[in-house]
Amino acid sequence: MGVGIIGCGNISSAYLRLSKMFKGIEMRACADLNMDAARAQADAYGVRALSVDDILAAEDIDIIVNLTIPAAHFGVSRRILEAGKHVFSEKPFVLSVDEGQELLDLAAKKGLRVGSAPDTFLGGAHQQARALVDSGELGQITGGMAAVMGRGMEMWHPNPDFFFKPGGGPVLDIGPYYVTNLVQLIGPINRVACFASTPRKQREITSQPRAGEFVTVETPTSMRGILEFANGATVTLNTSWDVHAHGMSPMELYGEMGSIFVPDPNFFGGEVRATEGAEPRELTAFDHPFGVPNEEHNQGMMANYRTAGLADMADAIAQGRPHRCGQDLAQHVMEVLLALLASGESKEVVEISSRCERPAALSAEQARALMT
Ligand SMILES: NC(=O)c1ccc[n+]([C@@H]2O[C@H](COP(=O)([O-])OP(=O)(O)OC[C@H]3O[C@@H](n4cnc5c(N)ncnc54)[C@H](O)[C@@H]3O)[C@@H](O)[C@H]2O)c1
Description:
- The protein is α/β, with parallel strands linked by helices.
- The chain has 2 domains: 2-116, Rossmann fold (3-Layer(aba) Sandwich); 123-287 and 326-357, Dihydrodipicolinate Reductase, domain 2 (2-Layer Sandwich).
- It contains 11 helices and 19 strands.
- The chain has a 9-stranded mixed sheet.
- α4 (70-82) runs parallel beside α5.
- 49% of the residues are buried.
- The protein binds nicotinamide-adenine-dinucleotide (NAD).
């Protein structure tokens, strides 16, 4: 399928570069409000630079990837659907439950698909965790914890303002990775509670080119939440951009017969560990292509298969099956994240009304079938 991109900023290079690993999708054009940004990416990756209107009208584009900033996601995704094209959005895919529902209804009316990042839960490590949970060897998952904490984004992103405005903050920005992975592992969530705070009302940008400028913070940057799953499991979720150092794991799940330690759901790979009772469990080798380190990062070689979710959606359209980074999943995760923020304000427990199926597991064989 022909793929176009709207939003040629920081993350667009990853999509343009990594999509070449996958069958069934071909990047053909990119667009941005800023034509210089579109032209720069078009030149670098050999695609056409188009205006937003022209990419929406382009006949050789079937799916448009929405890589604009969170505040623009809903409006841009709606225009993509109205233009008769499937949309795959970066997270957070909308900023309210009503916006999500409007996209869901529009897509259903037009017979189009909406997909959303994150797709890191398709990574080898998270699929290994999924296989272990599904094997029943841990028994039912009854509890767990997840944590993603650091100092924030003003140190590295060239334009970090959006991270500190409504739609940003660690809950909506980084929370999708953790809550999506929890839902694929445990299932949907019934209700949440949360305490949230904003320790620093102004943050100084230290990244170039805007070092020394200040951003006014308009969304909580620290929150401690509790999630109650439909199966009865309760999981604590810590997200913060006000922490220098901590000793918490990214994710631990506690089952009736053992525990599982899941690596960071912001990434595709990493080491999965588990126990049998309290003793270390010997795990059989899990030869999954989306866990193989393929890129040099500051932390060393890491697995990065971003666009796997987009490739799965294109394949799903061709096969007439549900796609894994599906709209019901994205809508449920958004409702949970927005409910955490609402609970942080009201100090009340918030019930979650949407439900979703767990996305289908992605076996090593199915993952290989998506690759060139
Ligand atoms: N940067 C990352 O590492 C990263 C990682 C994962 C996900 N994301 C997500 O991807 C999205 C984009 O992030 P980014 O870091 O690339 O942002 P960015 O600010 O670097 O780029 C956004 C681009 O979108 C363009 N844009 C904004 N509104 C638009 C509109 N209405 N129509 C057309 N173009 C528009 C801007 O001109 C800009 O070029 C965000 O939702 C972010 O959460 C980013």
